[in-house]
């Protein structure tokens, strides 16, 4: 049974940084990509970033490019999202995602950017 547990969210001022983590277990394979998504209040969940260990590639949504960095520790099976220069509009619940046939989601971690 795949389990994804996010952590690292919190309250930060505009311009600040946070690093989110997602601990994966239960048969998560490094052969499949992992993603970060986010959902702001009253909005649909949106894709943030993807990492493919197999292909050695990362991809980012336009709003994340240049500010966010996705990475993966394959030995510990932990997915990260380093977020720099945070903006108020980055406030959302952030979810990690693993696709292997079905979609697997964590419970999310709240990120609040406020002065």
Count of helix runs: 0
* Rounded mean pLDDT score: 96
| Count of DSSP strands | 11
- Determine the structural class based on helices, strands and strand pairing: mainly beta
CA distance, first residue to last residue: 40 Å
What is the alpha-carbon Rg in Å? 13 Å
Order of helices and strands: EEEEEEEEEEE
From the spread of the alpha carbons, the general shape counts as: globular
What's the helical proportion of residues?
Answer: under 10%
Low-confidence stretches: none
Q: Strand share of the residues?
A: over 45%
Largest sheet: 7 strands, mixed
Describe the protein.
- This protein is mainly β.
- It contains no helices and 11 strands.
- The mean pLDDT is 96.
Main attributes?
mainly beta; 115 residues; 11 strands; 4-stranded antiparallel β-sheet
Concise synopsis of the structure shown:
By secondary structure, the chain is mostly beta strands. 0% of the residues lie in helices and 55% in strands.
How is the secondary structure organized here?
Layout: E1 3-7, E2 10-12, E3 18-25, E4 34-39, E5 46-52, E6 57-60, E7 68-73, E8 78-83, E9 92-100, E10 102-105, E11 109-113
Parallel strand pairs: 2-11
Antiparallel strand pairs: 1-3, 3-8, 4-5, 4-9, 5-6, 7-8, 9-10, 9-11
């Amino acid at each position: 049974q795949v389990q994804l547990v996010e952590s690292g969210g919190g309250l930060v001022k505009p311009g600040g940084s946070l690093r989110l983590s997602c601990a994966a277990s239960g048969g998560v394979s490094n052969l499949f990509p992992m993603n970060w998504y986010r959902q702001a209040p009253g909005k649909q969940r949106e894709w943030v970033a993807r990492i493919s260990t197999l292909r050695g590639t990362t991809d980012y949504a336009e709003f994340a490019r240049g500010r966010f960095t996705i990475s993966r520790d394959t030995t510990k099976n932990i997915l990260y999202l380093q977020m720099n220069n945070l903006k108020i509009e980055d406030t959302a619940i952030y979810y990690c995602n693993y696709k292997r046939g079905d979609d697997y989601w964590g419970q999310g971690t709240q990120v609040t950017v406020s002065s």
